[in-house]
Amino acid sequence: MLRRALLGSLAAALFLGASAFAPNGTATGDQQSPVVIEHAIAAKIQPLNIRYPEGLADFLVYNDGHTIKVQPVRPQYTTVYDGKSYSLDQFHFHHPAEHVVAGAPVAPMELHFVNTNPDGTAVVLGVFLDSNGTNAAFSRIMRAAPPNGSKNKVPVRIDPTQLLPKDRHYWMYMGSLTTRDYDQVVRWIVLQTHVPVDQASISRFAELYPNNARGPQPINRRFILSGP
Question: What is the pLDDT of residues 58-107, one digit of tens each?
Fold first, then answer.
């Protein structure tokens, strides 16, 4: 009952009030992202139901002037949460990581899988990327990444499941997009296990975007849940 009450209050606060956007470019609203992840409440929240088929598939890589984005050519990737299905629109990268885990080093990069529902809400999967290994999908994306100012969309064949950890334990909280207009329509799922990638590919991204991370925002009265 406690868990349902917490989730219910979080959901009501999120979905009944999207963020406003002030003329000076500063988001208003008290559920902004990213946040410092601390004081998480252990809860029996549901296991992740990420329906991303394994295997190589066609994607388009492009530079939108803020980050490198990767868009599926076919709509075959979904995430189901709380009985609702969300389709993968795109995923993109931040350097350094935007979310901060209290008491732990900040990861060199963070990947966001943006999954949306027709009702305007989103589930975003946050994945920390560390520079202590190799990852074929990440390397191919960074080799294909267009330079700043380019409007090209470069085709690549990758397996996006290589960018997800096998361990699906996560933190969950209600928040916002971390780019304009910072809409407060997001259920954040931040994976607790990092994914290893190579430093050369991180450096390639950093040459384009030395720092495209939004700083931590006040947590205010929100809860961060940990599970399953």
Answer: 999 999 999 999 999 999 999 999 999 999 999 999 999 999 999 888 89
Does residue 33 sit in helix, strand or coil? coil
Catalytic residue flag (residue 66): yes
Q: Any idea where the domains of the chain sit in the sequence?
A: 2-53+77-129+166-227
Per annotation, catalytic residue among 39, 66, 95, 194 = 66
Query: Bridge-partner residues for 72, per DSSP?
Result: 59
**C-alpha torsion sign, points 147, 148, 150, 155:** positive
- Mark 69-94 as b/e (b = at least 16 C-beta within 10 Å): bbebeeeebbbebeeeebbbebbbbb
2-53+77-129+166-227 adopts what CATH topology?
Carbonic Anhydrase II (3.10.200)
